[in-house]
Amino acid sequence: MIFRVFNKEELSALFDVLAENIIVGPVEKALDKDGIPLYSFELVRDYEELRLQYPSTKISAKKYFLPHNETLSSFSVDKEGWTKHVDYNIYKPLVFFGMHACDINALNKLDKVLLESVYPTPYYGSKRKNMFIVGVNCTPQSHCFCRDMGADTVQHGFDMFLTDLGDRYFVEVLSAEAFNYLDRINSREAVEVDHLDYMKRVKERIGKFTSKVDTTDLTKILDMEFDAEVWREWGEKCLSCGTCANVCPTCYCYGVDEQVDLDLKGAHKIKHLHSCNLLDFAEVAGGHNFRPESYIRLKYRYYHKHRGFVEAFEESLCVGCGRCGEACLADITVPEVIASVRGEG
Ligand code: SF4
Ligand code: SF4
After folding, report:
1. Is the pLDDT of residue 33 over 70?
2. Which residue has the higher pLDDT, 42 or 345?
3. 321 lines ligand 2 (CB under 6 A)
4. Suppose 190 and one of 165, 194, 201, 215 were both cysteines; which one would form an S-S bond, judging by CB atoms 3.0 to 4.6 Å apart?
5. Pocket lining: 59 vs ligand 2, CB cutoff 6 Å
6. Which of 143, 238, 338 best tests ligand 1's pocket when mutated (most atoms within 8 Å of CB)?
7. Do the bridges between strand 94-99 and strand 131-136 make them parallel or antiparallel, or are there none, so unpaired?
8. Ligand 2 atom closest to residue 301's alpha carbon, by position in its atom list
9. pLDDT over 90 for what percent of the chain?
């Protein structure tokens, strides 16, 4: 890996050279009821809108690579016969300026199942390959448990990663494009003092994590506690609203609807992101529902993330961003659920 450094004042110059493309980044979207800013990944046209010091966004950036609704294919019929039209819905490369390590790790996990697995999806793949990612270091929030999930740092899946050293940024460079962009601004090779300051910053950050999830032997414990009463207790609280999957950077489950035009001359296959906590998630033709009770649906969400995915890919499908717990109206959080399954709650 190549390490470079540039002074803080050069950040706007980096934005300008990247702005040859469409930039998506964290911006202040609104204020909550206590007047605290809420952040969101949005298109950024003006450098002044970018908020690289954001704590975390309420919703992940997945609408740009896993949209909630996406037309997979369209069909039209005329006298000549029928025509199929497939569009991967990618128009221009997107630069993601300011992704935290957890969200880049989430993309790496999605890659495993949507790009490198038995059935790769070109809709996701085309968008993923047209992403240029500038990561940025963050300050752990009280709800973050990414460190326990091994997602507080990231080794790949980005082009460059910035760490704020106070007066300058330390840059990990992973792609030739990133190197070329840095060459167009006033940057230099990192030297020993930069390395030392970087390591100091890493150490300070580790000391700021407060939330704790014990993942020791978790897959085995989940196997043992499949019938535990705690699942019913959490299920009674759960509103089956699906918000947790909506905000989650790694939830990718979906359904496909087929819509036929009223004049019978056209049809469309439309993909919708789904949530395993919604009542109809496991309902099949004929009306039978394999998971009619909320506690079973909630349980399976945890088993998919912390059991099934680990078995398939040797890592969890959770990056510990804590968004689901922050958004849940029933105050259901991953650290509390896992602690209770372990008999610690
Ligand atoms: S766990 Fe919370 S956010 Fe998720 S479906 Fe249940 S109530 Fe909604
Ligand atoms: S399950 Fe919750 S904590 Fe884990 S990645 Fe999804 S939103 Fe983040």
Report:
1. yes
2. 42
3. yes
4. 194
5. no
6. 238
7. parallel
8. 1
9. 92
Count of domains observed in the chain: 1
Verify whether ligand 2 is closer than 6 Å to residue 306 (CB atom).
no
Supply the mean pLDDT for the chain. Answer: 95
Q: What is the 3-state secondary structure (H, E, C) of the chain?
A: CEEEEEEHHHHHHHHHHHCCCEEEEEEEEEECCCCCEEEEEEECCCHHHCCCCCCCCCCCCHHHCCCCEEEEEEEEEECCEEEEEECCCCCCCEEEEEECHHHHHHHHHHHHHHCCCCCCCHHHHHHHHCEEEEEECCCCCCCCCCCCCCCCCCCCCCCEEEEECCCEEEEEECCHHHHHHHHCCCEEECCHHHHHHHHHHHHHHHCCCCCCCCCCCHHHHHHHCCCCHHHHHHHHHCCCCCHHHHHCCCCCCEEEEEEECCCCCEEEEEEEECCCCCCCCCECCCCCECCCCHHHHHHHHHHHHHHHHHHHHCCCCCCCCCHHHHHCCCCCCHHHHHHHHCCCC
Using CA positions, which residue lies closest to atom 5 of ligand 2? 318
Q: Which domain holds residue 184?
A: 2-341
**319 pocket-lining for ligand 2 (C-beta < 6 Å):** yes
pLDDT at position 340 over 80:
yes
Distance from the alpha carbon of residue 62 to the mean position of ligand 2, in angstroms: 13
pLDDT confidence bin for 345, thresholds 50/70/90: low
Mean pLDDT computed over 298-308: 97
| pLDDT tens column, 175-223 | 999 999 999 999 999 999 999 999 999 999 999 999 789 999 999 999 9
pLDDT at 212: 85
Kindly report the protein residue whose alpha carbon is nearest to atom 7 of ligand 2.
Answer: 248
